[in-house]
From TrEMBL:
Stretches assigned to the Flavin reductase like domain: 20-163
Domain of life the protein comes from: Bacteria
Name of the protein: Flavin reductase family protein
GO molecular function terms attached to this record: FMN binding; oxidoreductase activity, acting on the CH-NH group of donors, NAD or NADP as acceptor
Pfam families: Flavin_Reduct (PF01613)
Entries under InterPro entries matching the protein: Flavin_Rdtase-like_dom, Split_barrel_FMN-bd
Coiled-coil regions listed: none
Amino acid sequence: MFYRPADGHGLPHSPFSAIVSPRPIGWISTRSATGDNLAPYSFFNAVGYHPPQVMFAGDLRDSMQNALDSGVFAVNVVEAASLQQMNATSARFPRGTDEFTKAGVAKAECSAIDCPRVADAPATLECRVIRMVELLGDERMVLGEVVGIHLRDDCLVDGRFDVTRYQPAARLGYSDYTFVRELVSLRRP
């Protein structure tokens, strides 16, 4: 099968997000004058290493607007144990609704920025907004520099951050998710 996205695919559901998978989930937390916000973004990833930089993309909703207005956001890593809470925060609540409270997610303050974070997340990246990029359609991408990192102590093993300790959730296509439960190590030639 071949199709041009502009012409449609003729399938019951778009295969695009199933093709580009698995995708890490950025559980983005922000603060505004009307309250704290927490929402998942499956169009999230690291984009730079020196200094560390990340991005998240989507339509201009509360999380993105709050990040642009405040200049900061936090990326909380989603573990298998918090999948249901993460999903609950994807609901479209009225602006000013605290998704931490609605989903029963424990909240803590960030250390380097004025922003909430998921208290028991395996890792949190505290970020300063670098810029917003307008994409095609109504989509936008926010780029951020990581200025602080929280690591949960039980995820550190022999000086390494061990993802098998918490099994990160990843987004597949449709309504599907997967978890990292095993590793394969390969050294570059």
